[in-house]
Amino acid sequence: AHEAAFATLSRVGIVPVVVVDDPARSSDLADALVAGGLPIAEITFRTPGAEAALRTFADRPDMLAGAGTVLTADQVDLAAEAGARFIVSPGFSTAVVRRAQELGLPVLPGVASASDLQAAVAEGIERVKLFPANRLGGPDMIASLSEPFPEMGFLPSGGVGPGNAAAYLAQPSVFALGGSWMVRRDLVAAGDMAAVARLSAEAVALVASLRA
Ligand code: 3PG
């Protein structure tokens, strides 16, 4: 299950970070992402509707739905119960990592430093989310961190978008880009799913062209 989920994240190369304001929009939002070629979503536990949205996404066979902003072991349980196929946290939490591992769920812990990476390695982690990537130093920081941690895979997120996708993907250790630019809250709130689908398709095309 681990390698299958990570293989899908790597193949698609983009992890949309979704903040749900209205779970009733979930089904349309999932349709738009799939139509745009992005059958992946990190549903963040930042809003009251997150769990319901995660259920809607996770019920779909055409969608790899994970939980993001998972801060506690209890939230790992909630996410698993709602059908999450992977777990993402913004920072490094041993408790979150261990609970996910106990449940057999792939986990992408957040890191912001070499210390966090050491803690991740100690838990057997091979892939991490670098957050907030742009604030921390962007692609150059990943290059620096890859010197002592050459085997680590990075998912940069936070300020990542079409303008810097090339620089991030130029780092061999970057296996996918995370971000909200194709699922902007204002677009989703306005029900502009055509824009979500278009921005998703553009993101997919951009990553494909940069990897070619
Ligand atoms: C995340 O949790 O990865 C970020 O909130 C996404 O950041 P962005 O909104 O700058 O893409």
UniProtKB/TrEMBL annotation:
The keyword Lyase applies. PROSITE patterns: ALDOLASE_KDPG_KHG_1, ALDOLASE_KDPG_KHG_2. Its EC number is 4.1.2.14. This is 2-dehydro-3-deoxy-phosphogluconate aldolase. CDD domains: KDPG_aldolase. Keywords: Carbohydrate metabolism, Lyase, Schiff base. Belongs to the KHG/KDPG aldolase family. Pfam families: Aldolase. The gene is eda. InterPro entries: Aldlse_KDPG_KHG, Aldolase_TIM, KDPG/KHG_AS_1, KDPG/KHG_AS_2. GO terms for molecular function: (R,S)-4-hydroxy-2-oxoglutarate aldolase activity; 2-dehydro-3-deoxy-phosphogluconate aldolase activity. It catalyses: 2-dehydro-3-deoxy-6-phospho-D-gluconate = D-glyceraldehyde 3-phosphate + pyruvate. SUPFAM superfamilies: Aldolase. Homotrimer. Pathway: Carbohydrate acid metabolism; 2-dehydro-3-deoxy-D-gluconate degradation; D-glyceraldehyde 3-phosphate and pyruvate from 2-dehydro-3-deoxy-D-gluconate: step 2/2.
